[in-house]
């Protein structure tokens, strides 16, 4: 900043000296306005690097430099001061107008999103106490705060709790106590993500904690690096690789692992007596998935999970771990259709929009990240245009996060061989 000010003063003094030497005293000569000088400053090496940027903050920096000169020079031309003020005012008005327009656009977008939440995405009203607990059937209950949801099973011998989302954690024990006074004997982790099991420390230390081997390994790793080990959920005491059946009292839970999907170790929790299936962070009844396809680690596994749900389990009620309501077989079929359409739109965009063409528009690969950013934006926009006419008012949140889903699916289709095959595309798209 100091160097810029020094060069600004030097430039001003040189101009003033040249004016004195040539004897230019006429009013026309004095009308060399501050904006022209600012534009001429591009010859200064540091300013040259930011040529063409129209950001208001940059204009403000340059204008401040001009004002600094005015305040520290003995001769100030009145018309130059006025020009400087006008430049600053014009820049402010232009940017204020832009900000106001953006605010209006964002407001309109937000209002549209609120207006198009379909009725099928809405769930039961959450009581003023902050949570809802209801029996699904035969001793199986679900508890929700409207953003997260989980289940617990009451048996002859005690309670089996599944997961412990932190947002529900402060209510979880209260919800169970409203239903039964039996102790919590078993805890099941759906997978290792903290937003679903982070409050598991509320349960008895002598309970049996059950999870997939991958989940146990992840928690062990977290504990090994944590300074405060109490922040890590209890390590599972029972683990399994493929399948595990928990028979307790008069109830049965079947735990299955079909490979990675949303996350390594993410299991299918099935209660045959109640005809209920729980699979977390994959299917979101009434809504599109959480952004970027629920930040899934394995997109190909995520896609296949829909078929596994429909082909391997007979259920009436689906528990997805998130949002407003429980699901049905029909909800799974609807999301499978959404994902399939997203695959087709992503494959189509990958093939039609070429990275090489984007590079030509930007004059080459001098700034590779700028090329990739523009390319990703173009692909995501094309996918959104394909998806919104059909899904915009069918699933909640589509307008809000569809571009993130487009990025997740198209990127997987570009770099992951299995995902690429599932996108019905047999060639690499980088050309």
Number of helices: 16
Taking all Cα atoms into account, the compactness measure Rg is 31 Å
**CATH level-4 homologous superfamily of the largest domain:** Ribonuclease Z/Hydroxyacylglutathione hydrolase-like
N-end to C-end Cα span: 43 Å
Q: Which structural class do you get from the secondary structure elements?
A: alpha/beta
- Strand percentage lies at 5-15%
DSSP summary, beta strand count = 12
- How do the strands line up in the largest sheet? 1-2-3-4-5-6-7
CATH topology of the largest domain: Metallo-beta-lactamase, Chain A
Uncertain segments are 18-114, 426-431
State the domain count. Answer: 3
Give the topology string: H per helix, E per strand: HHHHHHEEEEHEHEHEEEEEHHEHHHHH
Principal-axis shape equals globular
| Largest sheet features | 7 strands, mixed
Which bin fits the share of residues in helices? 40-55%
Using the coordinates above, name the CATH class of the largest domain: Alpha Beta
Summed over residues and divided by their number, the pLDDT gives a mean of 81
CATH second-level architecture of the largest domain? 4-Layer Sandwich
Protein model, in words:
By secondary structure, this protein is an alpha/beta fold. It folds into 3 domains: 2-115, no CATH class; 128-327, Ribonuclease Z/Hydroxyacylglutathione hydrolase-like (Metallo-beta-lactamase, Chain A, 4-Layer Sandwich); 343-422, no CATH class. The protein has helices at 2-22, 27-30, 34-40, 45-48, 56-72, 78-115, 166-179, 194-197, 213-225, 291-295, 299-312, 329-352, 355-361, 368-391, 398-415, 417-422, and strands spanning 132-137, 140-144, 149-154, 159-162, 184-188, 208-212, 238-240, 243-248, 251-256, 268-271, 276-278, 317-319. Strands 1-2-3-4-5-6-7 form a 7-stranded mixed sheet. A 5-stranded mixed sheet has the order 8-9-10-11-12, with no helix packed on it. Helix 11 runs antiparallel to helix 12 (329-352). The chain is globular and about 70 Å long.
């Amino acid at each position: 900043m100091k160097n810029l000010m020094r060069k600004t003063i030097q430039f001003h003094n040189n101009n003033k000296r040249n004016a004195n030497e040539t004897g230019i005293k006429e009013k026309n000569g004095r009308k060399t306005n501050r904006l022209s000088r600012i534009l001429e400053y591009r010859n200064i090496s540091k300013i040259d690097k930011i040529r063409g940027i129209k950001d208001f903050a940059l204009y403000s920096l340059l204008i401040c430099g001009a004002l600094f000169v005015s305040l520290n020079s003995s001769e100030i031309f009145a018309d130059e001061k006025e020009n400087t003020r006008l430049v600053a005012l014009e820049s402010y008005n232009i940017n204020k107008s832009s900000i106001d327009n953006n605010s209006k656009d964002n407001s309109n977008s937000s209002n549209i999103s609120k207006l198009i939440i379909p009725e099928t995405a809405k769930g039961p009203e959450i009581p003023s106490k902050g949570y809802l607990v209801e029996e699904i059937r035969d001793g199986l209950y679900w508890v929700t705060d409207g953003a997260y949801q989980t289940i617990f099973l009451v048996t002859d011998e005690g309670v089996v709790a599944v997961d412990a989302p932190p947002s529900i954690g402060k209510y979880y024990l209260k919800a169970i106590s409203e239903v039964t006074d039996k102790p919590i004997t078993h805890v099941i982790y759906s997978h290792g993500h903290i937003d679903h099991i982070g409050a598991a420390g509320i349960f008895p230390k002598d309970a049996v904690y059950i999870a997939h081997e991958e989940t146990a390994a992840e928690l062990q790793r977290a504990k090994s690096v944590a300074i405060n080990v109490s922040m890590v959920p209890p390590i599972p005491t029972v683990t399994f690789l493929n399948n595990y059946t928990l028979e307790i009292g008069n109830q049965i839970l079947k735990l299955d692992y079909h490979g990675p999907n949303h996350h390594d170790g993410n299991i299918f929790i099935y209660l045959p007596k109640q005809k209920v299936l729980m699979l977390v962070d994959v299917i979101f009844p009434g809504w599109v998935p959480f952004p970027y396809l629920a930040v899934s680690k394995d997109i190909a596994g995520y896609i296949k999970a829909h078929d596994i749900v429909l082909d391997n389990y007979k259920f009436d009620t689906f528990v997805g771990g998130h949002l407003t309501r429980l699901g049905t077989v029909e909800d799974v079929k609807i999301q499978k259709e959404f994902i399939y359409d997203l695959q087709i739109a992503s494959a189509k965009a990958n093939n039609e929009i070429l990275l090489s063409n984007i590079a030509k528009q930007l004059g080459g690969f001098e700034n590779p990240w700028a090329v990739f950013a523009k390319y990703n934006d173009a692909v995501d926009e094309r996918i959104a245009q394909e998806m919104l006419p059909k899904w915009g008012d069918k699933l909640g949140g589509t307008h809000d996060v569809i571009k993130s889903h487009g990025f997740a699916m198209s990127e997987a289709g570009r770099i992951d061989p299995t995902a690429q095959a599932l996108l019905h595309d047999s060639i690499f798209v980088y050309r």
